[in-house]
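Look over both lines before class:
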Amino acid sequence: MATPLPPLRRATLLLVAVLVGVLPSTARADLVISRADRRVDLTSHIVRVLASLKVENVGPDPVSQVLLSFPNIQAKNLAAIRAFGTEGKVKGPSTVLPVEIVEPSGTPPELTFFSALLHKPLEKGKILHLDVLTVFTHSLQPFPEEITQAEAQLVVYQDSAHYLSPYPVKAQSLAIRLPGGRVESYTRHPSAKLVDSELKYGQFEDLPPFSYLPIIVHFENNHPFAVAKEVIREIEISHWGNVQITEHYNIVHGGAKLKGEFSRNLIARLPPRAHSIYYRDEIGNISTSHLWSDSKKTQLEIEPRFPLFGGWQTTFTVGYGLPLQDFVFYSDGKRFLNITFGSPMEEILIEKLIVKVVLPEGSKDIEVSAPFPTKQWQEVKFSHLDIVGRPVVVLEKPDVIPEHNLYFQVYYKFNNISLLQEPLMLITGFFLLFAACIVYMRTDMSISKSSPSYLAKLQWDEVQATVQKIQGIFEQCLAIHDKLEASLRDLSRTGDIQSCKAARKAADAQFKELSKELKPLLTSLQASPQSYQIWPKVEELITKERDMQEKLMARHSTVVDSFEKKLRGQDVENRIALQQQKIAALRQEVESLLEYISEI
């Protein structure tokens, strides 16, 4: 059983009612379309419609334009329109006709009109063969909008089986090319015929102006709906022989949400002599890419790091270099860049494309020639060795499709002498560096032995030597403290009181010797004018160490006395607990002061 279609017909039925009401006032009687054949390509998410028209002038006066009409609901998704015409009973080689949007008087607001301008007026009784190519985006709507990974992706397309025209149509047909696979449903009509992957309507005959027969096709389309929310394409010209292209992509899968991952392979067709090609994302370089090249093209197949499910998006960057002589030319006193505007990615819709052309520093009289309207402005970019910056021409266009991948030109003037600017800057910089080195090597930078700075340096060196000796004495004191602690541990283990007293006696003798060594050093340090920063800390160190020494000796005496009186171990611990805490705290302060003095 077919899935119910979304409510798309309401706007269509309203349009039909409007068209019926305006027929008498807006029909054009000067032209008649004797034959209209339309072919709609729905094999990708970008819809392409080619209308082949045979137009005849049945009025009394020459006609210089042919009006083309589209419903507003369709025109809002129109990304490109092109017209090709040739006059004669037999269709010959066509020429491109300019197309512009117009607002004919008395036309309904529900329609959008374009005018194909003829190179010469179509005389009475003459025939014009007109081919009109239109490309639409966002015209295939996923339905259902959310599906599981196991389901096929179904989309809906809405159009008219009749060719909507302000002119009468004698005969016309419609052929819709589908991507293959299942066709869920389509609007039934006696003339409708589905054969393989092609749906045909018609032939219809003697249709009045603005004839409209709404149709809806609901079919399976599992092709990737690759949509780039934004692409920033930077083209940087270097007159040293290279044109560097850097393209930043933000791509989303525009198919049904929660759809299984779309085909992760994206194909980019680069110019034939592209080189230094890389492909990376925010994490880093991506190695899952393949490159083929021949004399006509370079093809890059890339695979995003992660799969893209419906509604998911990813960002990545593609960069490559091109030979300067293939894209920058000289004419009439100006250089000009001639390169394609759009993205090299196949079948991608870019909702917002920004093209930045970075010209060499010193470029002036800049002009842009584009094959379609774009928003334009200029910026300045600074790079290595730039002084005033490089001029940047910025072009912005919405809804860019493969048909927009046409050549555009950027003209500018550039003096070849400016090429020498950066090499001369490098040469000058290296010359000044070498000159500075020579001057430095030949200059006597020594300090006079009678100068105040030299004397101050000598005094500071003496202070440093004295402080190092003082540090060594205090470190020896700490080592004696450790030996006393070890003697108490041996006493607790062996009970040998005489050995413990001997260790105490030896420690007393060592402390006296160290005190004698320390006294002249302190006198010398205090007398030096360079010791004003370090002397207060040395005084504090002496005080703390002596306090710790006294408490350590007192604890040693208490423990020995307790052992001689044969007190219990717990009683001994209770007698020395407070002394032990104070000794530990003083030990930490002494070590901190030694570390601080060492840093100074």
